[in-house]
């Protein structure tokens, strides 16, 4: 283990170490800080450590990276912390593709869609919810189950299938939108995703048949049943 770096410009010595601990899904869950000592033979040793705070990690990162330029976040970016970002897609017509069991079958076409909120976490963990109205969401905006196929559970997890996930960064919003809507919707999972008469297949068949000029927002349902689920709750969820 090298304990020093020497150059004409500066001299550095090994002072401490940060150890990162991850779970089976390779998500980092814990970090510890350790002092480095050196024995008489010049060999470095990592001493017992203590848990490191997020503030200390940010300080170490800031000192390593130096001053960073600020960058503009467009209107569709609702939140970003360097690794997780939440974006909003306003309601508008979009083309969709289906290759699902009957009564859906294989269909495609342009239909109206509700406003959507995507939460994109490290490891290509992507969740999607619907919102009502054309306004940019605020922390007090109510979120609803996204009325789509290929969605798992009430937490909005998307089955990406063989779709190549774009980079998780705010400048890749269009790429994420394209990845979601340009793939085939193939299966409905357990649970009620809409109150539309006849269920989710009837909803999309009627939309493709042109029965609605705007998305019928009244059929959106909350992930919590009768209780509201607010965007502020999603902002506080940084787990994957």
Automatic annotation (TrEMBL):
InterPro entries: Prok-E2_D, PRTRC_protein-B. This is PRTRC system protein B. It comes from Acidithiobacillus caldus. The lineage of its organism: Bacteria, Pseudomonadati, Pseudomonadota, Acidithiobacillia, Acidithiobacillales.
């Amino acid at each position: 283990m090298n304990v020093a770096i020497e150059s004409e410009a500066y001299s550095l010595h090994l002072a401490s170490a940060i150890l990162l601990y991850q779970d089976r899904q390779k998500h980092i869950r814990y970090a510890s800080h350790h002092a480095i000592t050196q024995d008489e033979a010049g060999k470095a040793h990592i001493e017992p450590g203590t848990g490191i705070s997020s503030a200390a990690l940010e300080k170490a990162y800031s000192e390593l990276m130096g001053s960073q330029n600020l960058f503009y976040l467009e209107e569709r970016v609702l939140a970003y912390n360097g690794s997780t970002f939440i974006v909003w897609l306003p309601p508008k017509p979009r083309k969709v593709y289906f290759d699902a069991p009957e009564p859906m079958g294989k269909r495609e076409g342009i239909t109206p869609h509700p406003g959507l909120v995507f939460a994109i976490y490290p490891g290509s963990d992507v969740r999607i919810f619907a919102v009502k109205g054309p306004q940019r969401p605020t922390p007090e905006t109510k979120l609803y189950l996204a009325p789509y196929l290929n969605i798992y559970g009430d937490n909005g997890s998307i089955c990406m299938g063989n779709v190549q996930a774009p980079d998780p960064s705010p400048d890749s919003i269009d790429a994420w939108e394209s990845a979601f809507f340009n793939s085939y919707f193939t299966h409905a999972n357990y649970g009620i995703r809409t109150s539309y008469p006849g269920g989710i297949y009837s909803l999309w068949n009627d939309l493709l048949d042109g029965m609605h000029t705007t998305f019928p927002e009244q059929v959106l349902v909350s992930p919590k049943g009768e209780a509201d689920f607010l965007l502020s709750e999603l902002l506080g969820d940084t787990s994957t």
